[in-house]
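Hi V.,

You were right to ask for the full record rather than a summary. Here it is.
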Amino acid sequence: MRRRTFLRGLGLGAGAALLAPLVSRIASAGEGVPCRFVFVVEGNCFEPITMLGAPARAAIDATTAAPLDTQRWWYRSYRHDAPLMVGGGLETAPALGPLALDAAVAEQAGVVFGLSSRIVGGGHSAMHGVLSSARTISGVPGGQTFDAYLGALPQVRGETPFDAVRLGVSPGNDPLDFGTCAYAEGRGAPLMLNPAAAYDALFGSVGSASGREAFGRKRSLLDFAGADVTRALAAFPGNSRERAKLESYLASVEELTRRHERLVLLEPQLEANRPTAPDANPLFTSPDPLDRFRAHLQLTAAALKGELTHVAVVGCGTGGNFGLTYTSVSPDVGRHDMHHGSARDPELLRRIHEVTRLQVEAIVTHLAGELAATPEAGADGSMLDHTVIVFIGDNGEQHHSTASEFPILLIGGRRLGLATGGRTIVYPGMSSDGHRQVSNVWNTIGHLVGEPLDEFGREGPSRRAPGPLGELMG
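Predicted structure:
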């Protein structure tokens, strides 16, 4: 059998998409308390109005030339030059009522307005842009996305088997989508789209009898492949191109072997935290995209609790999938067409905003609430206290976005130094010297994990002010 065939088969089929770059090394973060990050990305925007609570509306109205009234986005209306910080009232926003379901989640939630990312282009979808602060051109990522950056930091990854777990929802039956995340410029990182396949990839070692058997076979393949490549290397002296390829293959096999060994050590923890198997959980096989989104959030919570990863991405209709049809909300009109008809059809507008509300409800119920209810092992507080959840749209403030504003919902991270506290923070608009960008959020998270990250992305001359957002740091 050819070595390439071996290597293709070592990742449990489609589960190989979850693997980090194969030549990376599992890093150790010492004895520090884990810090975790989850990026939930909605395709083709969620509108600012869905995150606007009554107190924040009043604060913005007090600074603008005219009240916001029925505006769904208002980036041109900002007139203030310093951040507006408004306490309370998040649950009065159209999509944030679900925060009231869990007080422990609500007290660590916050909304940020006013941040742009014009470098990404906007349009229907900025593809990898929202997480990379770089422009995707013809489907090719312009830079590394922030999940990949974090997953490569020793103090974030620790000894977890996966640099990141990346999951997504899209139409059709494709197993993977490469349009949202990137390991590096020109090198996409796939989202797994099938929740059942993701379950097998993450929890197959403690799943069904057949899953355990497949996991055992994988180790035999790894041992065989490692010995085969080692023998072959002996026949290639010097620095030939063929030898370099074999050395790369061997590094891949060694990395997969270490990962396999780590999964074996984690078996008790995985057994204790694995979610209900797909054949007993209707969310995993439902045709409704929102159910599959909920399934992915359940998997994400379980992966974090099981120490499989400290970084996750959950996309919903992201990349080029902006036409996703949310069947339980709008069975007859897809997301793209809902936006086009929403200006003249109040029912379509209601549906758009209902999708966002249900997504927030799912985040609260299946992810943030689970973490808030789980004590942090070896440290004070809950897992949510040590986890930052970022909910953001993939293109900006509207359907045909200009990327002039990306509203953001932040949850958790109190013990890491993230200051949310039920507040809304409204940064000045693009005409002000006080304007800030989405990349500043990535800088802020970098500082929370001890990285002096004052630059991220490829904004070049359009970079307004490097460094973290002090208003978000406790």
